[in-house]
Structure formats: C-alpha cells, structure tokens
Amino acid sequence: MERIRESKWLYVLLSILIATAFWMSVRAGEDPEMEHRVRGIPVTVTGSRVLENQGLMIDDISHDTATLIWKGSWSDIGQLDKNSVSVSVDVSRISEPGVYKLDYSVNYPATVATSAISLQGSVPEQLTVTVSKIYSDTFDIQPVLKGSVASGYQAGEFLVEPESVLISGTQEKVDMIDRVQVVLEQKELKDSFAGELPLRLLDAQGKEVERGDLRMTVDKAYVILPVVVVKEIPLRVEFKDGGGATQANVKCEIQPKSITVSGPEEDVLHLDELTLGSVDLSQVMDTVTKEFPIYLPAELQNVSGITDAQVTVSVAGLITRAFEVKNIELTNVPKGYSASLTTQVRTIVLRGTKKELDKVDATQIQIVADLSDLSTATGSYNVPVRVYLFTDGDVGVIGQNNVVINLSKK
Length: 410
Hints:
Blueprint: H1 2-30, E1 33-46, H2 48-53, E2 56-61, E3 65-73, H3 74-77, E4 86-90, E5 98-102, E6 105-107, E7 117-123, E8 127-133, E9 135-145, E10 153-155, E11 159-161, E12 164-169, H4 171-174, E13 179-184, E14 193-198, E15 200-202, E16 215-216, E17 220-225, E18 227-240, E19 250-255, E20 258-263, H5 265-268, E21 274-280, E22 287-293, E23 301-302, E24 308-315, E25 319-325, E26 328-331, E27 337-341, E28 346-352, H6 354-357, E29 365-370, E30 379-389, E31 396-397, E32 402-409
Parallel strand pairs: 1-4, 9-13, 18-21, 26-29
Antiparallel strand pairs: 1-3, 2-8, 3-7, 4-6, 5-8, 9-12, 10-18, 11-17, 12-16, 13-15, 14-17, 18-20, 19-24, 20-23, 22-24, 25-28, 27-32, 28-31, 29-30, 30-32
C-alpha cells in the first residue's frame, strides 16, 4: 500500500513539471503582450558631488523606492524586477536651498529592448527633494572609561588621535550633537589599552544621535589608555657610623612612613623600599631633624604627591664628654709662608658609654689642620680639622671642628 502511495505522488509531480514546461514553451513561442508591475525599485541620486561643491546637500527625499508598470512582450518585461531596474534623480542643476519636484529616469538592463516595452505608469510620478545648506562644526573627541581597572592597578591619562572631528550636515541635525565620545568598556584592565574605538554622537541628555546623512572626517579614533601598577612603598634612610654611635644606638622616625607610587609592572613590583639618603651619626649630637627630598626614577609617578620627608634621628644609650685639647698640629703649610695658631685650645666632644669615656684622656686626642687648600694670600683663616683618637675604646668624635690660624710670608 505504501509503495502505491509513493508512486501516485511521483506521477503527480511529473505531471506538474510537464505541464509547466509545456505552458512555458507555448508562451515563449507565442510571446504574448502583457502588463507587468514591479514594486520596491530602488531610487538612486546622481549629481550629489556637484551639489556639495556648492555647499548644498540633500536633506530629504520623498521616496527611496518606486513602483513601475510596463506593457510589452512577455520575453522582455519578464526580465524586469527590482534587482535589474533602478530609477535615478539628477540634482546637479540645483543651485539654491529649497524644495524641488523632480522627474526621475528609469535604468534598464542591457538585455532588454526598450523599444519593445512601454512605461504605463509610475508611483510616485515625481520625487520631492529637499535641499539644505551644508553646516559644519568641530567637536573634541572625549575619551570615557566605562569599564574598570583591576585592583592594585591605576589608569593613566587617555591619549586620543585625532583629538577632534569635523561633522557636516544640516544645521538642525548638527546642532543636536552636544558631544562626541569614544567609550572603552573593557573590565578588570591590567594592561595598557591601545586600539581604535568608534565615535559616539550624543545629545545634551546623553542619548545617541543617529548619524543619518551626517558626514564626519573620521568615524573612529585611536585610543591609548596606560594602565600601571599602584603600590605603597616604605621610606628609609641609611646611617653612617660615627661619633661612637652605630645604627644600634639610633631611634629614627620618618614622616610620612611611606608613599604610593605607580608605574609599569616590571618597575614597581620589585620595588620594596625607597632610600631617601644617609645620615652621618658623627653629626648627630642628641636629636636632629632633616628634610629629605623624595626622588623617583623617571618611569615611576608619585601618586601621593608628597615631595619631601621629615627624618628625625636621635642617639640613645650613650653619653658625651668634652675634652680641652692643646695638641694641635699644622700640616702642608704653603711654600714660602709660615703659619701660626691663633686657637691654642680646642674643645672636642666625644661620645660613647660612660665606661669607655672614663678611659680617655685629653692627651690621647690630636687635632690636625691641613693647610694645603689655603690660598697664598696672607691673613687669618678658619680651617676645618681632623681629630685623631689614640685609644682602643669604642668612642667617637661628634660635630665639626676647626681652628683659626694666621698665614704670613717668611
């Protein structure tokens, strides 16, 4: 039973195909005259370049498709459809803004003999074209980050190329634009972004303006957004032992204790502390406060904005003692000159533990003034000195010392 049904449908299909082929053969042989209507034929505009050269543009056109009705032989009009036929309107003769009713021409395929067909009607019969002056305005391109930066990272400043765009169209349409943006929407950024982003035209309420017939010098902008690592870096100072004091005797307070910096990942992640400079403990009597400028490598940025740190250093656990020293020696007296001491006794301050200072006598201290840097002019000079200790105790000289000498020719 199933085979009989399948055979029946096969015979029906073959009958339809044979009948269709026979009908087409008859029609082709007779090639009768008939009427043919085609809807949705696209409208094209010619002469726009001439219009633009006069500072004009098409603001509106009444129809973008047309319906045409032909009469002719079946073989000719059978080739006419919305894909093979178009209609065009020429605007090159317009020289002033205004509303114009224009005829349009029909463009046939090359295979159709136009003498064998006749146009019976068209809808619309004419096209209404509104022509306006071209209005232009320049807008800065505003970069916007609507995405996010990963924790521990910071976005830098956008770079946009080009920085502005010229937009042309009717004044009414251009005036709708309040701002032009490029929007970066990537989330959890850890790397710098570089690439093209489309321009968005927004009105005063932030709604996107449809471009329509608007023309722009660019429709994309190349955007760079640096993304850097942010890290808090402790501040520290180094100490130069002296005056009987070592780092073990030092109390140090730094304000601020740290600053926040940003920069490329490879430069920041391995930066664990920032050294401000060094403190010579021989110049610290009890407590001293110094200002240190905060310097960073060129590839890093000081996010905190603090440019100086205040360092307070005090020495604990030691005492000082003054010694009146008469053992003063002058060396490297300039040739042809003689030098004499005006200062006969110099007070030298030593620092150390009480036990060590009790072992020191003034005779174990020598003061040496080196005169090799003096000019050869005669007169009185205040000369820095070096102090030598001839003791094995753990003590040291603090402060700067000098003596006054008198230089004269022999």
